[in-house]
Specification:
The chain is an alpha+beta fold and about 80 residues long. The chain is built from two helices and four strands. The mean pLDDT is about 90.
Amino acid sequence: MKITPEDMAGFEKLKSDVADSLKPYKIEDEPLAFGIIALKVTFVIEDAEGASSSIEEKAQKIANVSGVETVSCDRL
């Protein structure tokens, strides 16, 4: 999942908020352009209907989130 911030000034707080509220498997910084950095967030979740949508909805509610995009889904 890619999470884009509204404001880079609060980027570290956003990173902390994502870690605390979504409990991801891994978080990485992904440079986009012009000094903007997105969060590349990896989750390991149950293969159930609506599971990824639920995480997207929770991510959208976090302060300083401009956009949330599911980039890929794989099965283990």
